[in-house]
Amino acid sequence: MYILPSMFTAGNIAAGYYAITQSLQGSVREPHHFDYAALAIGFAIPFDALDGRIARMTNTTSEFGKELDSLADVITFGVAPSILAFSWGVHMLPVTIDPLLREKLIQFGGFLCFCFLLCGASRLARFNISHDPVPKNPGRPGRKYFVGMPIPAAAGVVAAVVHAFLGRPVFNQWIAMVWLALVGLLGFLMVSTWRFWSGKEINLSSRHPFQLIILIGLVIYLLVFFSRIVLPAMALIYMFSGIGARIAYSRQRHRKTAHAETLDSSSTSSTGTPA
User: Which among 235, 274, 228 has a CA at the least distance from the CA of 149?
Assistant: First the structure.
């Protein structure tokens, strides 16, 4: 039984390794390699979600399994998407554009993709040493949240966008700039202390989970037949949910602070003595 969750972790590593090899083979003439790399990263996400749950269900959790899972995540959701983001997003820019601009974009793209990898590894290290972390903007008491965007979700955004283009690499410098901005934003969100929904309160062992089964079946159908639309939509909605939660919390805190200052000033003026 101890081997079972490690097998899922091994599948996670295999998908990451396959994604790296496909990213290195991709080109303008053979864009399907980039698409295969993106799909491999997407398939690795269920493996990553299942290995921990299986270990808890079978009571086979171990320190070895936790460390192996973290190393697998660095490979599959750190190294693989960073190489894919660089190879697909900037390295294949056409030589017809300004040579100096192309060179600078490639250099800056390599740096940003490395920052994505570094932020992902830092996010995993922080997760491993944190005990009951609380986000800066706490949400509902009954819901569980991640502190910072999980690295599989960030890798999923990269993979979903590449899959939406069927692996056809970026051909325009302006699109490349937008792409690099998105990669940089994902790196920042991973090391932030903003809240992202974890979904851990979903109970698959309830007595009559008919509604949940129907919903899962509908999601699988949409993923199979409309993956180019559904996957980017799901990934971006999840990303912007954390950003939106942070903005809403900041506005709420600002309103409370302004209201408290107003009450304090009115109380001071009412108790003051006239000259």
Answer: 235
